[in-house]
Structures are given as C-alpha cells and as structure tokens.
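RETRY 2/3 - previous attempt timed out on the joint model. Re-submitting the same 466-residue input unchanged.
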Amino acid sequence: MVTNIDLSSPEVAEKRSITGKSALIFSVLLLVFVLAAYLVVFFLKSKYSASDKAISDEISQEQNKANGATFSDIIDFQGRLDSAGKIIDDHAYWDSMAKRMSGYVIPEVKLTKFAGKKDSTGAGTIDISGTASSLDALSRELILLKDFPNLDSLEFKNAGESQGQTGQPSGINFDASLKLDKSAFQK
Amino acid sequence: MIQESMRLKVLILPLSLAIAVIVAIFFIKPAFSDMLSSKNALAGKQAQLENLKNQNQKLQAMKTKWEAMADEKNLVATAFPETENVDSYISEITSKASRSGVLLTDIKLGQAAGVGTSQNPDYICSSDSTGASTAASAQPVGAAAMPDTSGLQTLPGSSSACLKAITISLTAKGSWEQMLDFFKYLEDMNRISNIEALTLSTQAQAQAQDQASSDILSADISANAFFKEKAQSGSMALSSNLASQGSFNQKSLDKLKETIYAPYDAPAVSPSGQRNIFK
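RETRY 2/3 succeeded.
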C-alpha cells in the first residue's frame, strides 16, 4: 500500500515577501524619521542654548544688582549693627567696677591708686595701691579681696611701713593686683 | 520586475538601515547628549535665577523697611560715623565732663590703648599704625575742640568689614562721686566708645596741703571710639547672608538702644558698704 504524503506546508505557500516598493517606502520613511529625530534634538539643543544665554544675562543683571550700590546701604547698616553688638559685648562698666570694689575695701584701708586695664579677650587686671592702718587690717583686706566676684587671681606684690606726712597717720603701704574675667566688667 | 524588487530589497533597505544607524550614532547621540546637558544647565540656572530673584526681593523689602527706620539709622550713624569725626566726639566728652562736674585737664589723641596691635579684639582693623599714633597736643579743654587729627590710627590696608578706631586719652580731676558719674556718662555716650584703661589716684601733694583738696581724685582714661567707612558697593556673599537672615540684627539694635538710652543712675553710696575707696 502506497501512501502519498504532501510535505509542503500550507503556511509556506501563503508566506508573502516584502515587495521592492514597500522596501523603498520603508527606507525613505526610516531616513525621514532619523532626520526628523536629529532635527528635533538639534532644535531643542538650540532652544536650550538660547534660553541659557538669556537666563545667564538675567542672572548677571540680578548679581550686579546685589553686588552694586542698590543694596549697599542696607548691607552697610547690617555691618554696623553686627559691629555694635560685638563692641557693646566688650563694653566695660568701670563705674560698676569701682562701686563693687568699694564694697571690698575695709574702712581701715585707704587706696591711693586704682588702675584697671582690659585685654583683647575682655578680661582685665586691676592694680591697687593703698595704705592700711596696720598689718592686721592689711591681712583682713587681702582675705576680703579674695572673695571679689569673678576674680581669677589675686597677687599681693609688696607692703612696707610708711611714714605719715604732716597731719597724716602712718600705716602700711601695699600694692596688689587682681586678675578678673570678662564678666567682672559687666554691669 | 521580480528581479528589480529583489535589488531594491537587497540594496536599499540595508543601506537605509546602515545610514540610519550611522546618523543615530554620529549625529543624534552627541546632539542628544549636548541637548540633555544644556537642559540640565538651564534647569540649574533657572533655579539660581529664582534664588537670586527671591534674594533681591527680600533685600528690596528690607531696603524699604530700612528707609522707614529714621531713628535707628540716626542712632547707628551717630554710634559709628563714617569718618573719625573727632571734633563731635570730643565735644560730647567735654559736655559729659561738665555735666558730671569733672574738670578735664588734658585730651590727647592716638596714645596707648594698643589700637593696631595684636591685643585688639578681632573687630578692630589690625595693622601696623606706622607711627601714626602721636600725641596731638597737651592742651586744656578749651583748646581741645579743634584737635589735631594726626593722632588718628589710620590703619592702612584694612578691610571694610572691620572697624577703625581712634584712641583718646583724657586726664580729669574730680571727686569720687563726680568720677563715677563721669564714667557712667562715658559708657552711655551716643558715640560708642570703650574705656580700655583707667587710673584713679589721689593727689599726694594736695593731700599734704589740706583735707578738702584730698577729696579730689585724678583720673587718666584711655578710650577707643570707632568709625567705619561706608561701603560703596555691595557684596554677593553679604547680600545672600543678609537675605538669608531676612531681617536686620535686632539683637544688636536693642543692645545699642539699651546702651545709649540707658536711664541715668546717679552714683550713690549704698548702705551695703560701698564707699569712696580713697577716703
């Protein structure tokens, strides 16, 4: 028994190949698309560049405005205010200091000199010279000065008996130095 | 016909594909990259412009506010004049001296106090004064109204951010209360100045003569007054800093008002034991 088998498939018979015309149209369309894409990109690039230049000019104008004389008055004013704050923070209130010191000088002691100087940190040194009626009074005075507010250190320099001038009692002359921190000079 | 179609298919289609790929690689891709970078740069600049506009709007608003601040402007201009303005400074000092009853015997400009040295606070222009600090004169108060400004610390090369200072040395005579009064006035002057050093002493010779004269104290005072030349142009950094703050330094303004408008508090001997330490 012989069987005749048809090996050719129906799909192969129905397959349609691209024609030359459609290939041409496809090629042209492809090239047009590529060209259009390039033109679009080129156009956008040019547009962004033009905008960039315009914005750069505008930025330059705004910067000139900020750098120029337009706002120099208020910048100067703010600078002066900032400086004022710093200077006032460093303000030394010597009347308060002298009055405070007077509470730490006992009646048996009389000062002849009160010299104060501030340094760049705001702290300062007070040098005092005076006459105490006795060594006992001098020692009590020094003990009292040790409790002076915001005192960093007290240096007793020297003491010696003084011969009283006409009508003046004799006593013990002394010199001392007080190193004080910044807050001692505040109100 | 079939052969022509085959030729078209075989030649044109691959050729066009090849051209498309070449154009894409060599033209479109670089142009696209440039376009993207331009776009990004533009976005960055737009943001920068927006910030600048906002900043300038804030500054403009502050300027409008500043133009309405007549009292504060006057206060600051007096506290920190644009020039050394020595004559008005000395005039104010002499006025304070006469109000407190202190007798000014000597006024010198530009001595001591270390202006222009490394011991100054950082807000004072630091520079070698190159011998500019010479005593103006040792003259009585009446003649001090027209001082020689050669004593000014000119401080060459200083930046506009720091302050220039003039140092004034005063010698005064008065009682303990008058001296305290005078110090108080000097601290609250319209022209901001800091007393850097002072020496209070009794007059030994007077002590020997009579008791009344021994109440008189002698004071040597060294004070710094400040001035700042006006900036003719702004600065981008300062502008952006000011705009970011959004307002003037109110804290400093309040301190300035508090110092200058401080109510007068007469020195008094308090019952807590404060007294004349020289008696």
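The first strand of chain B starts at residue 103 and ends at 109. Closing ticket.
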